[in-house]
UniProtKB/TrEMBL annotation, chain A:
FAD-binding FR-type domain boundaries: 364-459
Key word Metal-binding present: yes
UniProt organism field: Malonomonas rubra DSM 5091
UniProt protein name: NAD(P)H-flavin reductase
SUPFAM superfamilies per the UniProt record, alphabetical: alpha-helical ferredoxin (SSF46548), Ferredoxin reductase-like, C-terminal NADP-linked domain (SSF52343), Riboflavin synthase domain-like (SSF63380)
UniProtKB/TrEMBL annotation, chain B:
Signal peptide: none
Binding site for Fe cation: 63, 416
Protein name: Coenzyme F420-reducing hydrogenase, alpha subunit
UniProt record similarity statement: Belongs to the [NiFe]/[NiFeSe] hydrogenase large subunit family.
UniProtKB/TrEMBL annotation, chain C:
Name of the protein: Coenzyme F420-reducing hydrogenase, gamma subunit
Cellular component, GO annotation: periplasmic space
UniProt GO molecular function: iron-sulfur cluster binding; oxidoreductase activity
DNA-binding recorded as keyword: no
Ranges of residues in domain NADH:ubiquinone oxidoreductase-like 20kDa subunit: 13-149
Keywords: Oxidoreductase, Periplasm
Localization in the cell: Periplasm
Length: 631, 419, 244
């Protein structure tokens, strides 16, 4: 869950309409002077001849036009030396955790750094809220200011050169004065209390979003970064970076969003008591990934650089749908080896296999596949075996779009396992006009196909684990694909259990397969139907009943649950009660995926596109999405 | 009777004390300096002038600042580099800090235990808490001067050819000033304490040498002044001062016009008492230090007077710096010139000479350092000879203790003297 | 029982012992937890048995070896204090010449009491359990190491380079001024005090465990500097150590 706090921040604190007001430099000076009486004011100032971000002593020292080279406000929001709690040694007692933070104002933050705070919020409020960060974040007001990008900035490539919200106040530079914009109720009040308006003119009209110019540019849309990296795991560029990198960690230490840390105990000189502190750590350090036996699971500098890029542009994207990079250029500016993310990414893009020149609109055009077999599964269900012109690569849980010209297109889960060949099975239940038309197709006919789309179950990461597969109704389609794949590679998995539930026998999708699996020794297959008068003569049971005498080892089990949302609401708590970890539970969140390209918006759950990021998700990734399984 | 004391304690560096007596006759009496030669003068050969001050600082931890400053002064003289006034004031301040901390370390930790009858000040941790705490407080403040100006109390990091590579902020100086003012009660208590001690009466005429007190108390001058009222330029020191080797010492000894002489606090006081700061002058009077006093045991009093002088002058230095306004540090270009020069500075223990010759690439071809303690060594031995006949009635342990106290009174820095 | 701690010195400037002394009020607090039993510079007392011996300076004469062995025998734990003890330090700067040549250059004399050998670290003579690097040592690091030893923990030195300290403290990079700097390959723990003082790093704390030599050399070249220049700096405190 995103913490209530950050939601509050964005929702309740946003004033109804931002206030815009002109403010002269002398007024700013008075403003800061007044703030200094009540707050710890952090600002850029000259110390020993260099610009640093630090606590202000004198309002006149504040520098508002500063280059992007100074430290980011991470220095104060997530400091390098942060006391978590104090302890006493002999009594073994823990003293109260350190959550107090002084009321503070960071006066002068460039848009990229304001974006960086959003990323820190994403990461540190996720799951167990980091209370120490939260305390500082709550006590700190953020005042943004315009900037001038230098040759290392690439914020324009990431959309972080402008900002519409996420600050309390923002100072826009105009000719000879500033235009101040309120971004929150707190900001408006701060302005009222500490910079009372002396000028009685009309309110300024709002400025449009201020866009910057950077010469340093990523030459492709940043949304393709996760996919670009996905294919670049073994790219030679990591070796090249590994050879250039000093491993000094400057890039991550100065990064406004890098927050990886180490936790240490520091004893007071009295040796009676001490504090547990956290300090910044860096994935670029030799010891970062070293474990107790001396092994290092990221032992080369190439691995470490790759990790840094993946974390910035892929891993956190997958969690929060934004890059963990704001294009501030600090990592490059301070890198003696001149490792420049923009150059690296552009080179990787240039080296990546580019899709063949496609005709406009071709992404919507299906290719033709031949029906090589049709099997009547039940009165309403038919299984089609299709042959494509070329081999097809997909993960279990992916789907295809079937076209019937004249009637349109509809998505269907692939019901067979990926086998590297060019044949797949799709199950079609007769319902509307399109499926009725499909049911009329015969062996040898051709139909239109687009796909595969979506991302399914990560099969390789399930190796060595027990599988608990839970299917409700048509949810069995994706599960069948997964199960067939696992059975084809049986020795790579531990125990396999399939629990399948439906309204009645007719609603079971693959009755024959189910009976086969039920008899098989390769897996434990249990079936429950609610209909008391079913033709198989099994007692009327709800699927939850199948969990009653279920014996699983939660540490080594991966659960794949596929069915309607009400089943998730029923089954998920049972699994968690057994001790299953949230990241080991996969749900199928199929929606009406119209285009399959992450564009049409029909399958969108809150802010994510199911067709692109799913339909198979680990629970931990979607639990915060209100629209996923809640009503 | 034979007294052989290996490794004298509560002095800087390694030395043995040997006394042999046959009836009423002393047949042998020596201070052996057994400090390891480290050959700094040879090590400097082949090094670039920009590294010299960093290396020579390591001659001695206690007086690293003096070595740093005199080496810079020597090279600046050779290259005719003008040091800006702000940097000159900062260097002066740095010197005061070093002298004060060195003297306080000696007074409280090396010398005081003799007068309180304990083997070390740490013995008084429980019984005289306030005394130990005061000693550490005073030392702290003196060290703070060195830290604020030099970046670190030992082996300074902000000094460079032509001035400074970094300077303190005005706010830091203001804070330092407050700390210095706050030590005055501790200084008063220190004066009271040392005024209460009796020092053995032992006056001996000798030549006392220091840099000439021209505008102020001896610190940094191009001329030397002896208690015989002779004034001569530092550059001609080798015409009078001669280094020589003794089979008893790894440090080279020195004589002035063929005779032993004294350098250090007492020499400076003797030749420059009229230039003491007002507070220090008062204390000198209170401690009944006369200009003519040359009782080596009373070196302690002279040292205390100098501590007060240093603190008072440091305050003036800070005021002047703040009044001028702290300007940027300017580091001059180092001209590619060959050069040769000698310069001297008053280090805590006396006059410290450095001489270098370097080529146009700035590579040192020859270096020499004359260390205050080396200049005092002959004087100490001479004192032994004069003092021992007065001690013959005492037990061996008492004789040994008196001689140890005599050596300590000079605050010898043996590692420095050997270098 | 308080642990018995002793400080000992061989050839060196005694600056590391003085750094301990300069801990002042912190030293006073430390003395609540240890018994200082031997510290020749400030104490007359000596001790038979020592729990932790901190030894400063390098070993240059046969007599030094004897004395060091005796200290080792008397001590449960022996810690090298400062770079002279750790690797020979600045004392070894003359090791490109024989002791005879050095003697002639400085004394022009060959009396036996002036005889020395090439300065060696303590570890050349006895087993050294731990080390406090630096010239001089950092007082706070000394305290942390002493604390660890008092609690019978393994003292740890930072594994990262001085660059980290510069970045944290927002110091400008020496390379930006065209100045050679050993910061990228030198073990941190000094709070980059020399760079703060407007200078550059001369590597007095020795190399990190895994210095990245080839990227480092490339960076030097890019800044118009030569490997020889950096080695010259490195030698100041590390003559006998492996070059970066």
């Amino acid at each position: 869950m995103l913490s209530d706090f950050s939601l509050k921040f964005q929702a309740e604190e946003q004033p109804e309409r931002p206030l815009w007001r002109a403010i002269q430099s002398t007024e700013i000076l008075h403003f800061v002077r007044s703030l200094l009486l009540a707050y710890d004011v952090i600002g850029v100032q000259k110390k020993r001849g260099r610009l640093v971000l630090d606590s202000l002593q004198d309002a006149a020292d504040l520098v508002l036009e500063f280059p992007p080279a100074v430290h980011s406000p991470k220095k104060f929001l997530f400091p390098h030396w942060d006391q978590l709690f104090r302890f006493k040694l002999d009594e073994n007692i823990l003293l109260e955790a350190e959550t107090a933070a002084p009321p503070r104002i960071i006066f002068g933050m460039h848009p990229c750094d304001l974006h960086a705070v959003k990323i820190l919020d994403d990461c540190l409020f996720e799951g167990e809220t980091d209370s120490s960060y939260r305390a500082k974040r709550e006590a700190t007001l953020l005042i943004g200011v315009d900037c001038t990008p230098d040759e290392f900035c690439f914020c324009t490539s990431l959309g972080t050169d402008r900002i519409a919200e996420g600050f309390d106040l923002f100072l826009h530079k105009r000719d000879g004065h500033y235009l101040i914009q309120t971004g929150s109720e707190r900001g408006r009040k701060l302005l009222q209390d500490h910079a009372p308006e002396t000028y009685d003119g009309p309110e300024e009209s709002p400025l449009p979003l201020q866009v910057k110019q950077c010469d340093n540019k990523i030459k492709f849309p940043f949304e393709s970064l996760p996919n670009l990296l996905e294919d670049a795991y073994d790219d030679k560029i990591w070796q090249e970076l590994g050879h250039r990198c000093l491993g000094c960690g400057s890039c991550t230490l100065l990064c406004p969003t890098c927050y990886c840390f180490n936790v240490q105990d520091k004893l007071e000189i009295s040796m009676q008591e001490g504090q547990r502190i956290r300090t910044w750590d860096s994935c670029q350090f030799d010891q970062f990934a070293q474990v107790a036996n001396g092994n290092n699971f990221r032992s080369s500098q190439a691995d470490r650089q790759r990790h840094r890029f993946f974390r910035k542009y892929k891993y956190l994207w997958e969690k929060h749908q934004r890059t963990a990079c704001v294009g501030c250029g600090r990592c490059r500016r301070e890198c003696l080896s001149e490792i420049e993310p923009v150059t690296v990414l552009n080179q990787m893009f240039a080296d990546s296999p580019q899709p063949a020149e496609t005709r406009p609109g071709s992404e919507y055009q299906p290719q033709m596949a031949q029906i090589i077999d049709v099997e009547q599964l039940s009165e309403k269900d038919r299984l089609f075996r299709l042959r494509l012109p070329q081999s097809i690569d997909f993960t279990p849980g992916s789907f295809m779009q079937i076209s019937v010209f004249g009637l349109g297109e509809a998505p269907f889960s692939i019901a067979s396992a990926p086998d590297g060949g060019n044949e797949i099975e799709l199950m079609v239940r007769k319902a509307g006009t399109l499926t009725q038309a499909l049911h009329r197709s015969r062996k040898g006919d051709s139909i239109g196909l687009r796909g595969p789309f979506g991302s399914g179950y990560p099969l390789a990461s399930m190796h060595g684990k027990d599988l608990l597969l839970v299917a409700g109704g048509r949810g069995l389609l994706a599960i069948r694909s997964l199960l067939q794949a696992a059975l084809a590679d049986r020795h790579n998995f531990g125990r396999i259990t399939l629990l399948c539930g439906a309204r009645d026998i007719e609603a079971l999708v693959f009755p024959e397969d189910l009976l086969d699996w039920h008899r098989s020794e390769l897996l434990d297959c249990r079936i429950a139907v609610k209909d008391p008068d079913n033709s198989w003569g099994i007692p009327s049971l709800d699927i939850s009943y199948l969990f009653k005498d279920l014996d699983i080892d939660p540490q080594r089990t991966i659960a794949a649950v596929s069915g309607p949302p009400e089943m998730y609401r029923q089954v998920n708590p049972l699994l968690f009660r057994m001790g299953l970890a949230e990241e080991n539970l996969y749900l199928n969140l199929e929606r009406h995926m119209k285009c399959g390209l992450g564009k049409c918006g029909k399958c969108q759950i809150n802010n994510i596109y199911v067709c692109e990021c799913g339909p198979i998700f680990p629970y931990s990734a979607i639990k915060h999405l209100g629209e996923a399984i809640e009503r | 009777m034979k007294i052989e004391l290996d490794y004298l304690t509560r002095i800087e560096g390694h030395g043995h004390l040997i006394v042999e007596r046959d009836g009423d006759k002393i047949v042998n009496c020596r201070l052996q300096v057994v400090e390891t030669p480290r050959f700094f003068e040879a090590m400097l050969q082949g090094r670039h002038i920009s590294d010299v001050s960093t290396i020579v600082a390591r001659v001695c931890g206690v007086c690293s600042i003096s070595h740093t400053l005199v080496s810079l002064k020597t090279m600046e003289k050779a290259l005719q580099i003008e040091v800006p006034p702000q940097a000159q004031l900062l260097r002066r301040l740095l010197s005061y800090g070093e002298t004060a901390q060195s003297h306080l370390l000696h007074l409280y930790f090396m010398a005081l235990p003799d007068h309180l009858g304990v083997p070390s000040l740490f013995k008084l941790l429980d019984s005289k808490q306030e005394l130990v705490a005061r000693a550490l407080r005073l030392k702290r403040t003196a060290n703070r001067i060195c830290e604020v100006v030099g970046g670190r109390s030992i082996h300074p990091v902000t000094t460079c050819l032509g001035g400074f590579s970094a300077r303190p902020e005005a706010s830091e100086l203001k804070k330092l000033r407050q700390e210095l003012v706050a030590t005055l009660p501790d200084l008063e208590a220190t004066v009271e304490l040392f005024a209460s001690f009796e020092f053995p009466a032992f006056n001996r005429q000798r030549n006392a040498l220091c840099l000439a007190p021209e505008n102020d108390y001896p610190l940094s001058s191009d001329n030397l002044l002896s208690s015989n009222h002779e004034r001569f330029p530092v550059t001609s020191h080798h015409q009078r001062i001669e280094e020589y080797i003794s089979p008893d010492s790894t440090a080279k000894l020195a004589r002035c016009e063929g005779d032993c002489y004294m350098v250090g606090p007492q020499a400076r006081l003797r030749n420059g008492q009229q230039k003491l700061s007002p507070m220090a002058a008062k204390v000198a009077t209170a401690l009944s230090l006369e200009q003519t006093t040359l009782n080596p045991f009373e070196n302690l009093k002279a040292r205390l007077v100098e501590v007060i002088h240093c603190i008072e002058e440091a305050l003036h230095c800070i005021d002047e710096l703040l009044l001028r306004g702290m300007g940027r540090v300017v580091t001059p270009n180092i001209p590619s010139l060959a050069g040769e020069a000698t310069a001297a500075i008053e280090a805590p223990r006396g006059t410290l000479f450095h001489s270098y010759r370097f080529n146009t690439q700035g590579i040192i071809e020859e270096a020499n350092c004359i260390i205050p303690t080396a200049q005092n060594l002959a004087s100490i031995e001479e004192d032994f000879k004069r003092l021992l006949p007065q001690l013959l009635d005492l037990s061996a342990a008492d004789i040994q203790h008196k001689l140890e106290m005599l050596v300590r009174a000079y605050d010898p820095c043996l590692s420095c003297s050997t270098h | 029982m308080k642990m018995k701690v002793g400080l000992f010195d061989f050839a060196g400037c005694e600056g590391c012992q003085l750094t301990v002394m300069n801990l002042e009020d912190q030293l006073l607090q430390v003395l609540q937890h240890i018994e200082l039993v031997e510290f020749r510079e400030l104490m007359t007392e000596t001790a038979e048995q020592i729990d932790i011996a901190f030894v400063e300076g390098s070993i240059c004469r046969p007599g030094d070896r004897q004395r060091l062995k005796q200290i080792r025998q008397r001590s449960k734990v022996l810690v090298a204090l400062g770079s002279c003890a750790d690797n020979g330090g600045v004392n070894a700067l003359g090791s490109d010449r024989t002791p005879e040549v050095l003697r002639q250059q400085v004394y022009a004399n060959d009396l036996p009491h002036l005889y020395t050998e090439t300065p060696q670290p303590l570890s050349a003579v006895v087993k050294v359990d731990y080390r406090v690097p630096g010239c001089p040592i950092d007082g706070q690091e000394f305290l942390a190491i002493l604390q660890a030893l008092l609690l019978q923990q393994q003292p740890e030195l930072p594994a990262f380079a001085v660059c980290v300290e510069c970045k944290l403290a927002e110091y400008p990079c020496s390379f930006d001024y065209g100045q050679v700097c050993l910061g990228p390959v030198t073990r941190a723990g000094c709070r980059a005090i020399c760079i703060d003082g407007g200078g550059h790093c001369r590597g007095c704390r020795g190399l990190i465990d895994n210095p990245r030599t080839s990227p480092y050399h490339r960076i030097l070249e890019q800044h118009g500097l030569t490997v020889e220049e950096i080695l010259d700096q490195y030698r100041t405190f590390n003559v006998s150590e492996k070059a970066p």
